[in-house]
Design brief:
Blueprint lengths: L2 H8 L5 E6 L2 E6 L2 E6 L4 E5 L2 H10 L4 E2 L9 E5 L4 H15 L2
C-alpha cells in the first residue's frame, strides 16, 4: 500500500480530509487524527485499545506498537503489510473520530 492508496481510501470516507505537508501527511475528521505518516514505510492509525489488540492479534506482520506509542491509542501499520487490514484499521479510526 502506498500513501496515495491511503489518501484515496481515507478521503473517500465522509468528512475525512488530508492535511499536513510532504513527509508528514495526515488525514483528519473534524481536526481529530485518523491516520498519519510515521516512520518511513509506516503510518500511525488512531484506534482504541481493544481494536488495537484485535488488529495486532489478527495481523502481526502488518501492525505493531513501538514502545513510545504503548500508552497511546495508536497502532503502527507497515505499508508492505495486508492492504485490507490497513483499510480496516483506517475505517475503525474514522468511525471512532466521528462519534
Amino acid at each position: 500500500m502506498t500513501l496515495d492508496d491511503i489518501d484515496q481510501f481515507a478521503t473517500s470516507l465522509p468528512g475525512c480530509k488530508r492535511k499536513g505537508h510532504p513527509g508528514r501527511v495526515a488525514w483528519y475528521v473534524d481536526d481529530r487524527l485518523v491516520v498519519r505518516q510515521d516512520e518511513p514505510g509506516t503510518v500511525l492509525v488512531r484506534v482504541g485499545f481493544e481494536d488495537r489488540e484485535r488488529l495486532l492479534d489478527a495481523h502481526p506482520d502488518t501492525f505493531g506498537v513501538p514502545p513510545r506509542w504503548e500508552a497511546h491509542r495508536k497502532v503502527q501499520a507497515d505499508l508492505d503489510g495486508d492492504d485490507d487490514a490497513i483499510r480496516e484499521a483506517i475505517r475503525l479510526a474514522w468511525a471512532a473520530q466521528r462519534r
